Amino acid sequence: MTIILQILLTFSILSLVAVGGANAVLPEMHRQLVELHGWLDDVTFSQLYALAQAAPGPNILVASVMGWRIAGAGGMAAATLGMLVPAAVLAWGMAGLTQRLRGSAWLKPAQGGLVPVAIGLILAAGVTMAQASYTHGVMPLVVVAASTLLVWRTDYNPLWMLAGGGLLGAFFLT
Amino acid sequence: MPEAPPTTAIPTRAALFTGYLRIGLFGFGGVAAWARRVIVEERRWLTEREYAEVLGLGQILPGPNVGNAAVMIGRRFHGLAGALLATAGLYCAPLIILIGLCLFYDRYGQLPAVAPVMNGIAAGAAGMVIGTAFKMAGKLKLRWDALLVLLLATLAAAVLRMPLPLIVLLLAPVSIALSLRQAGLIGGAPAR
């Protein structure tokens, strides 16, 4: 079996256990890539994770970067497809299921029950990101607070906040 | 006070792609905040509640919740083409940027010196994510028991650092039961 196929298979399995997205699957990704397959060492794994964080988009694309490092462009394609396709197929099936059950009385309330969990986990992601930024001093926390208020209480475009944070970082966090 | 009926618009296929392109491109530190902003506030494809429900389903499935939501929202409006366009839009800009970063890394063996800028952006993004959670909880007018579930989920993930699948497994059934009970479908509790 070529390495590309192995990468495809490994990330397909990871895709199916990634309930909660990238951060949930990171420990298992480390176990598979570093400990089981020995494709990457510890330091490289951490560096690649940091590299993926520097790009926008869903954090799950950390898989693409790992694939690149292991086997170049082919590895990147295999890791990305492996990570995205199985989960997307499940989501497709779930969408079909909810369309078919649309008439049933319990679907809406049942779906509504998932809402607080989803929002709670979004809040947790924000808090975790804020904690990480606090390691760079108090200044980032001011940015966190300002950005929270701006997004919560107003409809201004948050891009300004991101740009402001980046500028502040360039001058004060070096 | 009766709320004004939220007006939603069905996106064209091109709009589905460009909307998700925007979400992926601006989604530093995760895309949850931008996805809600574009879908609910800017383009009004879904109401606050509809979007939260799709996201809730996306949360219990494996994979990124916003990615799963893209498939479901795409399918809802334009079937297979919609699901593919939304997904492609979401991932294409970040992938191109990542390829650029990988090439840089391969050539120079280190990350470009953008760490301080990224740290500042990350702080702004953290606040954006927190603010989005507050905004959704407020606009959806969650009841006290739903707010309790919300805070438990946050506590378990951000403070206790419990694995997310475990949190979903523990809290989702409780939360669904509470919601069904509230609707008068189980337990014989009155609907109001």
UniProtKB/TrEMBL annotation, chain A:
Protein's membrane topology: Multi-pass membrane protein
Main location: membrane
One Pfam family named in its UniProt record: Chromate_transp
Spans traversing the lipid bilayer: 75-97, 109-127, 158-173
Keywords of this entry: Cell membrane, Membrane, Transmembrane, Transmembrane helix
Keyword Transport: no
Top-level taxon of origin: Bacteria
InterPro entries, per the entry: CHR_Transporter, Chromate_transpt
Location of this chain's protein in the cell: Cell membrane
Protein family per UniProt: Belongs to the chromate ion transporter (CHR) (TC 2.A.51) family.
Protein name: Chromate transporter
Species per Swiss-Prot/TrEMBL record: Paeniroseomonas aquatica
From TrEMBL, chain B:
Cited Pfam families: Chromate_transp
Membrane topology, as annotated: Multi-pass membrane protein
Principal location listed in the UniProt entry: membrane
Keyword Disulfide bond on entry: no
Keywords: Cell membrane, Membrane, Transmembrane, Transmembrane helix
Transmembrane segment boundaries: 20-39, 80-101, 113-134, 146-172
InterPro entries tied to this protein: CHR_Transporter (IPR052518), Chromate_transpt (IPR003370)
Compartmental location: Cell membrane
Family that this chain belongs to: Belongs to the chromate ion transporter (CHR) (TC 2.A.51) family.
UniProt name for this protein: Chromate transporter
Taxonomic path: Bacteria, Pseudomonadati, Pseudomonadota, Alphaproteobacteria, Acetobacterales
